[in-house]
TrEMBL record:
Domain NAD-dependent epimerase/dehydratase residue range list: 3-217
The protein's name: NAD-dependent epimerase/dehydratase family protein
Pfam families (alphabetical): Epimerase (PF01370)
Superkingdom of origin organism: Bacteria
Species: Actinoplanes sichuanensis
InterPro entries in the cross-refs: Epimerase_deHydtase, NAD(P)-bd_dom_sf, NAD(P)-dependent_oxidoreduct
Range of residues in the leader sequence: none
Length: 321
C-alpha cells in the first residue's frame, strides 16, 4: 500500500511508519517541518497548500496531526483538531484514498465520569475541555463523510500512550518530577489506562487495513487500568526518588490551578492545571473487546516490560542519568 501520514514527525506517526515499512508498504506524509529522507513534506493542516497534492495516490491516509494538550484554548484546538481535520479529509477524498483513519482519544468519553469498562457504543460527552470537545467534533467531521459515502473512515481512540518518544506520558512527567512539580489527585488512586506505543501501532494498522474497520470506532488501550501512583511511580523509581506525591483531589486541583497561574505569568505554557488534575482522578476503564473481536487486537507488552523498554530509551537519550 501507499500510506500517507499527517503529523509524520510525531511520536505515534514515526512508530507507525517504521512498522509499515517493515511490512513492505510505501510510507510518506507531511508535518510542519520537512524530512525528505523519510518522504515528509512541509505543510500546515490549518492552511491549504502543496502538501494536499502530495497525498495523491494514497491508498490509506492516517491522520495523527493534532493539538494534544490541556494548555491550549478552544480556538487554537478547534483550528487544528476540527477545521484542520476537515482540510485533511477533503484532500484525502480528492486523492481517491480508500480509507481515512482518524486518531481521536479515549477522552471523547469525557473526563467527568463514564461506566467502568466503557465500550464504543457509549455516548461521547462534551465537558467544556477544549481537547475533549474538539476530539469529539473531529470524529463528527470524519464519520459524517463516511455516512455520506465520500470515503471509508475508521476512528481510533488510543488510551494513554507511553514509551520511547511519548511527550505527554513519558518525557513531560519525567521533566515535572525532576522539577518537583508533579502531583497526583485522589491520593494517587485515579485510574490510568496505559498502552505501550508498539501495541497501539499494531492495533492502528489492523484498524486501517481491515474491512471490519470501515465505518467503526475502536478503543485501543493495553486492556487494563492501573492506579496513577503505580504508573508514574515507575518514573520516580528511575530517578531514584520516593513518590509519587499525592493529595486529595480538591487540594490537588487548587494547587495545580495556583501553580499554573504562576507559571503562565512568566510567559510559559504549562500542563500543570486543574484539567490535568481531574484527568488523573478518573475511576473507570475502557473495554477493548470490540478491537479484539473484529481486528484480532492483542496487546503484548505489559506495564513492566513497557517501562523497562522506556527506561532504556530514556537513558540512551540522556533524559535519565
Amino acid at each position: 500500500m501507499r500510506v500517507f501520514l499527517t503529523g509524520a514527525n510525531g511520536f505515534i506517526a514515526r512508530a507507525t511508519a517504521t512498522r509499515l515499512r517493515e511490512q513492505g508498504h510505501q510510507v510518506y506524509g507531511m508535518d510542519l517541518r520537512a524530512d525528505p529522507e523519510a518522504g515528509v513534506v512541509a505543510g500546515d493542516i490549518t492552511r491549504g497548500g502543496p502538501w494536499q497534492d502530495v497525498m495523491a495516490g494514497a491508498d490509506v491516509v492516517i491522520h495523527t496531526a493534532a493539538v494534544v494538550s490541556n494548555a491550549v484554548g478552544l480556538d487554537g484546538q478547534w483550528l487544528v483538531n476540527v477545521a484542520g481535520t476537515r482540510r485533511v479529509l477533503d484532500a484525502a477524498v480528492r486523492a481517491g484514498a480508500g480509507r481515512f483513519v482518524q486518531l481521536s482519544s479515549i477522552r471523547a468519553f469525557s473526563d467527568r465520569g463514564f461506566p467502568d469498562g466503557v465500550t464504543e457504543d457509549h455516548p461521547v460527552r462534551p465537558d467544556g475541555n477544549p481537547y475533549v470537545d474538539t476530539k469529539i467534533a473531529g470524529e463528527q467531521v470524519v464519520l459524517q463523510a463516511h455516512a455520506e459515502g465520500r470515503i471509508a473512515v475508521t476512528v481510533v481512540r488510543p488510551g494513554d500512550v507511553y514509551g520511547p518518544g511519548s511527550r505527554p506520558w513519558t518525557v513531560l512527567p519525567l521533566q515535572l518530577i525532576k522539577r518537583y512539580q508533579f502531583l497526583l489527585p485522589a491520593m494517587g488512586t485515579g485510574i490510568f489506562s496505559p498502552v505501550y506505543v508498539d501495541d497501539l501501532v499494531e492495533g492502528l494498522i489492523r484498524a486501517a487495513t481491515s474491512r471490519a474497520g470501515a465505518g467503526r470506532v475502536f478503543t485501543l488501550t493495553g486492556g487494563v487500568g492501573v492506579p496513577c501512583r503505580e504508573f508514574f511511580g515507575h518514573y520516580y523509581r528511575m530517578l531514584g526518588r520516593r513518590g509519587p506525591i499525592v493529595a486529595p483531589t480538591a487540594v490537588a486541583v487548587g494547587v495545580a490551578r495556583a501553580a499554573g497561574r504562576l507559571i503562565r505569568l512568566t510567559g510559559a505554557e504549562t500542563e500543570v492545571n486543574a484539567v490535568s488534575m481531574r484527568y488523573f482522578a478518573r475511576t473507570g476503564t475502557y473495554s477493548i473487546e470490540k478491537a479484539q473481536r473484529l481486528l484480532g487486537y492483542r496487546p503484548s507488552v505489559d506495564l513492566a516490560e513497557g517501562m523497562a523498554r522506556t527506561e532504556a530509551w530514556l537513558r540512551a537519550s540522556r533524559l535519565l542519568p
